[in-house]
Amino acid sequence: MADVEESILVESIRYSAVCQGCGAEAEWCGVQALVGEVLRWDVESTCSACGFALAVCGGDLSEELRDRLISEHGRAGLRVAPPTKDAAIMRVLRAELGIGLDGVRAVLERVLSGQYSGTLPEMEFLARKLRASGIEAAASRTAG
Q1: Which among 2, 41, 42, 51 is least buried, having the fewest CB atoms inside 10 angstroms?
Q2: Domains present along the chain, CATH in parentheses
Q3: pTM of the predicted model, to two decimals?
Q4: Residue 108, Cα to own-chain centre: how many angstroms?
């Protein structure tokens, strides 16, 4: 049986964008995937007008496309089980989110109050990092 921490979690969207080959409108498919401990964004397209094909693996997810993922699939939240180890949680959040001490305090408060959210792969990524640090954490869809 596969280790849960090594499982793959995927959310995808389809959207229209300009073909880089001919400039026509083309359909694109974007996938945010959590593969083991790696969060990635992959996108591909094949233009029906000219046949130009493109696949970009491991790219950056733009805010616009992230918002589309959330709109289509819904928000996910991050929960930590009491008793919390605030300093340990802050270390993980600072390392994974690349934020400073002032910013991490605000994020910690949002996590502890159940207000921190994003895509399901993003929240599960943080939950896995927290669990690896000995903190009981889970990601799940939020209501609404």
Answers
A1: 2
A2: 4-73 (no CATH), 76-141 (3.30.1390.10)
A3: 0.87
A4: 18
Count of helices and strands (H, E) across the chain = 4, 7
Closest to 29 measured CA to CA, from 7, 3, 47, 4: 47
Give the tens place of pLDDT for each residue, 6-50: 689 999 999 999 998 999 999 999 999 999 889 999 999 999 999
Q: Name the residue among 30, 28, 26 with its Cα closest to residue 11.
A: 30
Rounded to whole angstroms, the Cα distance separating 90 from 100 reads 10
Question: How far apart (Å, rounded) are the C-alpha atoms in residues 76 and 38?
Answer: 18
Integer angstrom CA distances of residue 19 from 9, 49, 76, 129: 28, 9, 32, 37
Q: Cα separations (Å) of 133 from 117, 128, 129?
A: 20, 9, 6
Gap between the Cα atoms of 139 and 116, Å rounded: 10
The rounded distance, in Å, linking the Cα atoms of 99 and 110 is: 14
Can you tell me the distance from the alpha carbon of 144 to that of 136, in angstroms, rounded to the nearest whole number? 25
